[in-house]
Amino acid sequence: MDLKKVDDIIDGYNADKSALIGIFQDIQQEFRYLPREAISRVVERLDIPITQAYAVATFYKSFSLVPRGEHEIHVCLGTACHLRGGQRLVENFERTLNVNAGGTTADRKFTLETVNCLGACALAPLVRVDQKNYGKMSGDKISKIIKEYRPDGEGKSHGEN
């Protein structure tokens, strides 16, 4: 783990304790999760209790203590999406990627998550990959989406949870 990058992020916030969330956001963006070594460095440099750091890291859903995929797939399970087959989409993604919802593929290409609402009920069922929405989704469109983000034609991944 390159702690120099972590130090650069902390320095960018002038090692200000009140910037803990911003520091964690930048570390998460850099490494796609909050590595234990990075959290330890932040604790050391900001002179804060480790319990405070982990309280923040575990409170916010946007932070992850385990590696995340290069691309994050969010399948909406809000009422409209659920009624229009959202759960079947989750199951189809799970089979296609060979990973359970909440997990990351072994190649760390994808993380599959379910969410309660993506705020676009008219497009139900909705899937969001990174920041791109795919509305009126169906199971037959899933392999096309996967190929869009895995253009080299790699096969199925073996899941990690």
What features would you describe in this structure?
A four-stranded mixed sheet has the order 3-1-4-5, covered by helices on one side. It has two domains: 3-59, no CATH class; 71-160, Glutaredoxin, CATH 3.40.30. It starts with a helix and ends with a strand. The protein has helices at residues 3-12, 20-31, 36-46, 50-59, 79-83, 86-97, 142-149, and strands at residues 71-76, 104-105, 110-115, 127-129, 132-134, 159-160. It has 161 residues and is α+β, with helices and mostly antiparallel strands. 42% of the residues lie in helices and 14% in strands. The chain is elongated, with a radius of gyration of 18 Å. The longest helix has 12 residues, at 20-31.
Please describe the topology of this protein.
Blueprint: H1 3-12, H2 20-31, H3 36-46, H4 50-59, E1 71-76, H5 79-83, H6 86-97, E2 104-105, E3 110-115, E4 127-129, E5 132-134, H7 142-149, E6 159-160
Parallel strand pairs: 1-3
Antiparallel strand pairs: 1-4, 2-6, 4-5
Give the termini distance in whole angstroms.
22 Å
What are the segments in which pLDDT stays under 50 over at least 5 consecutive residues?
155-161
Number of domains: 2
CATH architecture of the largest domain: 3-Layer(aba) Sandwich
Task: List the main descriptive attributes of the protein structure presented here.
Glutaredoxin; 161 residues; 6 strands; alpha+beta; 4-stranded mixed β-sheet; single chain; elongated
